[in-house]
Automatic annotation (TrEMBL):
Residues 2-396 form the Amino acid transporter transmembrane domain. Belongs to the amino acid/polyamine transporter 2 family. This is Amino acid transporter transmembrane domain-containing protein. It is a multi-pass membrane protein. The chain crosses the membrane at residues 31-55, 80-102, 114-131, 138-161, 193-211, 223-245, 265-290, 310-329, 335-358, 370-395. One of its GO terms (cellular component) is membrane.
Amino acid sequence: MGWIKAAVILLKTQIALGVLAMPTALQSVGAVPGALVIFGIGLITSWAGYVVGTFKRNHPEVYSMADVGGVLAGKMGHEVFTAIYAAFMISLTGVALLPITIAFNTLSDHATCTLVWMVLAAVVCCALASIQTLNKVSLIGSVGIACILIAIFTLLIAVGVQERPATAPPAPAPWFKDMVAFKKANFWDGVNAMSTAVAGLCGTPAFFSVISEMKNPKDYNKSLAVCQTIVVSTYVTVAVVVYYFCGQYLASPALGSAGPLLKKVCYGIALPGLLATGILYCHIAAKLVFVRLMRKSEHLTAHTKTHWSVWLATTSVCMLLGFILANSIPFFGNLIVLVCALFGTLMCMQFTGWMWLYDNWGRRKESPDWKFWIAAGLNWLLIVFGTFLMISGVVSSCLGIRDSFRAGTIGRPFSCADNSK
């Protein structure tokens, strides 16, 4: 592929569920710090994407994060990186199921138990994720991203013209918007804002496979620049506009912030995209596990009964694990922050810093110039900051989950309660 098509595919890997949580970063710390946090994390992940490109050129045999583990730490590293990436994709599968159930409840006015909608979403996503050709699954993903983007921009229009947000007191009761440029936030609010930004910008591990398909890998930096510019601009715009018009009545996912009618319109448009996201994450997770299990067997490529039995069992187990996670922690904002703080920072920050140091740290004995030391310092800082954000982000999300359960926002795990309110 050329660099323009590569930029489009990079966009597909970045713009997913994270955009639905992005306005909450501003709600946590205020409009100005929140926008700066998104921009700052965008710069960090842009550097991570640049390192991915240089590492790929230095190690052409690398096709995925699993291969990166093999280069950095041998056979054991390959196994560990495979397990971490598969766990990340399975967790995101669970995250994807939550907004699907919210969409079903919104469109049907909670016509049935939320758990029923969750089972339906899991069955549909699992069935389509079992399509083995990644090209066909990618087509589903393309339609999905288009639906989510259309729904988001419909939301931007909706919040601008609506009388009041869906979560505000119903008419004719008055409502007052508490929107501030700078909020008196505590430490955990800041951590939550940074972790939310990571949730929308942690698609970097998928960049390896894009570079592998480019006609001229040297054009990758142009694709990366276009991708990151559009993604960060979109995220900041969506976050600022939605927060400005909704204030403290911001919903999570953000699509629920529109008025009652337009809320249904937004979720109706986004539903195919939400389903496509769950399908894609489940497929990637299952493919990682399947190849690992069958890589030394003739059944890996031969369409035998064993091949299909293991493949269908793999997609089913991956979806089942995601289903259990989504029902155990039924809070979209807190769950996506937890998953991306735990896995997203690890793969976009610590691992990226390690990749650069693996290729370049030996040069310190060759009288390197000041540019080397700046780059080395940035990558050591990336590892330290990523570790800090991973630990603090997990703690912050766990505190948020605890508080949500105490407040009875959803009720309890595996609940039938309406989660669209």
